[in-house]
Amino acid sequence: MSADRAPPERLHPLALLSGFGKAVRQMIGGFLAGGFFAFQGRPLLGLVIVGGLMASTLIGLLLHWWRFTFRVGEDAVRIDSGILNRNHRTIPFDRVQDVSIAQGPLQRLFGVAQVTLETGGSSLFKEEGVLAGIALPRAEALRDLVRARRMGLASAADLDPAAMAQGDEPLFSMDLKRVLTCGLFNFSLAVLAALFGASQTVGDLLNVNPFERSFWQPILVSNGLGQYLLDHRLGLALGGIGVLVLLGVLSGLVRTLLREHGFRLDRNAKGLRRRRGLATRTDVSLPKRRIQAGVIA
């Protein structure tokens, strides 16, 4: 059956949450405008502005979800989207280089996954090959179908289950200790600069600036330490830098743990398969013919 004649399917309602998060970020200007009128003594006008933005955003998200459909045929996937301006795109399976599956915490809880069809083309169509939320069994079935068609098989049912189960050969994996060790070397100077800027702006308002006497005085007094750091600007500067470095190291550990937890790299007949992630679990395959070089640093 061709993709045009296949029955239409819709995304899981959980996909609305990801769209809502993006919409809220785009409405920051409207929220600021509502707050401005509220502080100017016109709270009703501010409430109308914020309420109107929220209502229009929710209606737009629902219409976008309702109008977004995809059809899976024997040789291609067709994706239809758009509320007023309709966009119809057909992605042949022989152009798909990779089918990646990603699951966030809520998606794992509800058994939903995001599927990305990598075609290797222009980034202009990157978002058009993304199915933001479909059932995990359907996502895995779609990946198996694409894999079967690229192998020249008639359908995913022709795949050998035993061969598929035994096809992955582990090349490398990281336990929790190795992930945390990797996080120690993932310290970013950009994070340090951001923390320094925050300490000089927001920190002054919250009274948590490690470069000021007010931050260190209660700590040093309560621990019976001397007055050296309080009396010398150099001591305050060294203490503030130490705090920022510690926060930077902790941020590197947390970021690495969220991204690399459960890292495993396998080799199969077609190439490499990588699985990783604590907050968002990703499962990505890389065909051999796409590997151009291996770099050891």
Which regions contain 5 or more consecutive residues with pLDDT less than 50?
Answer: 161-166
Q: Average pLDDT across residues?
A: 77
Strand order of the largest sheet: 7-6-5-11-10-9-8
Distance between the termini: 49 Å
User: So how many helices?
Assistant: 12
Radius of gyration: 26 Å
Percentage of residues in helical conformation: 40-55%
Counting DSSP E segments of at least 2 residues, the number of strands comes to 11
Structural class: alpha+beta
Largest sheet: 7 strands, antiparallel
Please provide the ordered H/E string of secondary-structure elements: EHHHEEEEHEEHHEHHHHHHEEE
Brief account:
Helix content is 48%, strand content 20%.
Structure explained in plain terms:
The chain has twelve helices and eleven strands. Strand 10 (about 270-275) and strand 11 form a beta hairpin. Mean pLDDT is about 75; it is low at about 160-165. The strands form two sheets. A seven-stranded antiparallel sheet has the order 7-6-5-11-10-9-8. Strands 1-2-3-4 form a four-stranded antiparallel sheet. It has helices at about 15-25, 30-40, 45-65, 105-110, 135-150, 160-165, 175-185, 190-200, 200-205, 215-220, 230, 235-260, and strands at about 10, 70, 75-80, 85-90, 100-105, 110-120, 130-135, 170-175, 265, 270-275, 280-285. The longest helix has 28 residues, at about 235-260. With about 300 residues, it is α+β, with helices and mostly antiparallel strands.
